[in-house]
Design goal:
Distance between the termini: 49 Å
Number of strands: 3
Structural class: mainly alpha
Radius of gyration: 21 Å
Shape: elongated
Order of helices and strands: HHHEEHEHHHHHHH
Length: 218
């Protein structure tokens, strides 16, 4: 049930509801509301009480037409995104909403959580694609064409959800046809986490961007 995933902390609400700062965590929990049209009901005080209420009564509450929301915009977007994603609805509009959230100075961690809810290429990333393309030879293979903009971006910006291990994994994928004749490809040695899903999504998106750019140039 969507409400249970939201309140227990999925990939989108979890970073906020489990915030390392106890005061911020309390703020997010106390902002949770049940909404039905123009009616709002406050959840009970205390995390344990909230969880207890939702776990035991969520079915009845939802059947009566209520849905979760928040008075804090970051958490409200995370909740609405969860509803849209788990209901197989279009989620494109959430990218612009995440980018326009008002985040106080010093709350970079909160902004990163919100940005990371919706994996996508960074803004103005085409600039890095163009700069990287001007540095590589025309006959550069697809792997280098895809990874060089990311490497350039990470060298200037720093921390990013795509890590070196993801680039190495992509290299193995490109090498698979050649390697298969010698030995089978090994399965990943670690469980996939949300940052891995983000990286796969971004690498796929960047690959399509590079291929489209190259086909246009030809």
């Amino acid at each position: 049930m969507i409400e249970l995933s939201i309140i227990l902390g999925n990939d989108y609400t979890g970073p906020l509801l489990r915030h390392e700062d106890a005061s911020k965590q309390k703020e997010y929990w106390s902002s949770l509301r049940w909404q039905r049209d123009e009616e709002y009901e406050t959840l009970s005080n205390g995390i344990s009480s909230q969880l207890q209420i939702v776990i035991h009564n969520v079915g009845q509450i939802v059947a009566e037409g209520w849905r979760l929301t928040s008075t804090v915009e970051e958490l409200k977007v995370a909740i609405e995104y969860s509803y849209a994603l788990y209901s197989f609805k279009n989620t494109e509009s959430f990218r612009s909403r995440a980018n326009t959230l008002d985040v106080d100075d010093g709350d970079d961690e909160d902004q990163n959580c919100t940005e990371e809810m919706i994996p996508n290429l960074p803004q103005r990333f085409d600039e890095y694609v163009a700069r990287a393309s001007s540095r590589v030879e025309a006959e550069t293979d697809l792997f280098e064409a895809v990874t060089s903009p990311l490497i350039l971006y990470m060298s200037e910006v720093g921390d990013y959800c795509v890590k070196q291990k993801h680039l190495d994994a992509l290299g193995m994928v490109f090498d698979t046809p050649r390697l298969q004749s010698h030995s089978p490809m090994e399965l990943p040695r670690h469980q996939f986490h949300w940052n891995d899903i983000q990286a796969v999504f971004i690498l796929e998106k960047l690959m399509l961007r590079v291929m489209s750019r190259n086909s246009g140039a030809n």
